[in-house]
Amino acid sequence: MDIIPAFELRKQYETIRHEVESVTARIMAGGSYILGGEVSAFEAEFAEYCSASHALGVASGTDALQLSLMACGIGAGDEVIAPSHTAVATFAAIEMTGARPVLVDIDLARYTIDPAHIAKAITPRTRAIIPVHLYGCPADMDVILEIAREKELFVVEDAAQAHGAAIHGRRVGSLGDIAAFSFYPTKNLGAFGDGGAVVTNNSELAEKVRLLRQHGWKERYISQVKGINSRLDELQAGILRVKLRHLEEWNQRRRQIASLYFDLLSKSDLPLPPRPSDVEPVFHQFVIRHPRRDALREYLKSQGIQTLVHYPLPVHLQPGYANLGLGRGSLPRSERAADEVLSLPLYPELTEEQVRRVAQAVLTFPNR
Ligand SMILES: Cc1ncc(COP(=O)(O)O)c(C=O)c1O
Fold this sequence. Notes:
The chain has helices at 9-30, 37-49, 61-71, 88-97, 115-121, 141-151, 203-212, 234-265, 293-302, 332-340, 352-363, and strands at 54-58, 79-83, 100-104, 106-107, 112-113, 126-129, 154-158, 166-167, 170-171, 178-182, 196-200, 217-219, 222-223, 279-280, 286-289, 341-344. It is an alpha/beta fold. The protein folds into 2 domains: 9-104 and 111-241, 3-Layer(aba) Sandwich (Aspartate Aminotransferase, domain 2), CATH 3.40.640; 247-363, Aspartate Aminotransferase, domain 1.
């Protein structure tokens, strides 16, 4: 039986091997390896892709979030509101600044932060909201931006899973005050290692991130402010430039695959991914829910189909964050999502036949 993997990075590499090899050979022969010409060129191209004025290459998506918050002046004594159903990185980045993360529940239909819960969590110490555009579907930004404007809060988009997703035709990364992207290899735009970017239309915030990402240096070895070391290297930037040229075609292919899944799975009564009006998702994941998720996952495995769970525990129930004091039952929709979500294989190289095989297996799962 042919295995259908949960993701398959080598196939994509084969389609761009020649472009990547010539770029990496040129960079290695060039003698400049960190924050050089490739990084600047990628920053300009990625900013343009997001319809934003500035992009700054950093070492990871987690760092991009931390640096975005630091640029907004957020630190000890401040509170930042974020969803609990997210990659733990969202939360960890807030903690790294010294601020207190305030976790709230999600809208289960969209898997993103519920604006009604944001409003209830705001205190005089709140400084920012982090909407996470989870699975490639933008959060409900119209309402979130309205709340933020009214309460004078920063909106830091966690766009790690949503390169190219848009609302009303405007791409994520240019919707809030500042945004963080990850180029972890499995992302829609992935490097061959770690990488990230901060994107913003605000020149002042951009300049702060430029300082903060490299020890607060404007001039080498002179720290104007306390910063961190979070730099993007030339090889990753060169590879990202190659891949950025293919991103639209790959996102389009993801949408086609998603559309086939929607057609085939519409026969089932399972909750399928959100498709809010005025939103163009990029299907970083195709997530379904099932009350017997683990049994379905085992069944699919027995049919040669690998799946993933994003994420098996909400942040507030992670053993490492037990000090939060939020027990089971405190954020019920995040907990239900963690118990029931299942990510089916979805990547541009998946064939129509493979998609049909996955959908057929989901539909034939016994004893639903
Ligand atoms: C929603 C979300 N936020 C933040 C991150 C952190 O990105 P990185 O792994 O590049 O640090 C990730 C990726 O893992 C993510 O999926």
